[in-house]
Design a protein that fits this description.
TIM Barrel; alpha/beta; 283 residues
Length: 283
Amino acid sequence: MDTITLNNGIEMPLEGLGVFQVTDEGECERAVRTALDLGYRLVDTAACYGNERAVGRALKASGLPREEVFLTSKVWIQDAGYERTMASFDRTLENLGTDYLDLYLIHMPYGDYHGSWRAMEELLRAGRVRAIGVCNFLPDRLADLILAHQVVPAVNQIELHPFCQQRRLRQLMARYDIAPMAWAPFAEGQHGLFSNPTLTAIGAAHNKTAAQVVLRWLRQEGIIAIPKSVHEERICENFDIDDFELTPADLAQVDAMDEGVPTILDVPDVCEVYRLHGITFEQ
C-alpha cells in the first residue's frame, strides 16, 4: 500500500475504506472486515456516522495488530468547543475499542472549531492521537485556524473528484504541506461519473473501470481517497489499482473535467449551515 508522509512525519495510507451512510452495524462490520482482509489499512469513520462500534468490532475480529491499521474519526458540530470535543473523543475511543486514534478531524468549519482545535492540540501533545486535521475547511477558515494556533492541520478532508478539483484550496494547503483527502472520490455517482466517456475511454485503454481511473488519478496526484462500499466485489475493485499508471495525456484529460464548483456540498451556503447545525445524535 502506497503511503503519504504527513506534515508531522507520520505515514498514512493513500487509500482506505469510508463508512459514511453505512448505518446498519452488521453491514458496516462486514464491509470493514472484508476490506481489512483484502489489505486495506485505513478506515475512516466519524462520531455522527453512528458506526464507530461496528468499526471497532471489525478491527478486533480481524486479528490485526492495532498499529497496522490507520483509524480516522471526527468530531461533529454539536460537540464543537474544548470540553465537548474532549468528551466526544473519549466516547470515540470507547466505541472503537482503542486507546488512541491515528487521525482526529474537525468534521465541519462551524461552531467553536477554535475550541475544538485547542482540545485536539492537547490530545496530540498527550499522545492520544498521532495527527489532527480538519474537514471541509475552505481557504478563509483554514487560514484563520492556522494563524490562530500552534499546530497546522495535517489533513483537510474535502469534496474532491474529477468535477470538483479544489485547485485554489489545494494551493493554500500545499503551502503548509496539508494533505488533501477526498471524501467522495466518485462524486456520489453524480454527473454520470461511472459511465463518463472520458473516464471509460481511459479505463478501456488500461482494462480498468471509470472508478479505478479516478482512484488512480487521485493516487498519482498524492491525494488520499476513501471510497465507500459495502459490496465485496466493489471493495476489491477499488483496491486493485496498483498494476497500471495513467499517462500524462490521461492525467490531462481528467484535469480538464474540473467544473470548479462543488457537486455535493456547498460549505458556505447558508441553507447548508442551518441544515448541518440541525443534525444531532447520541454518540
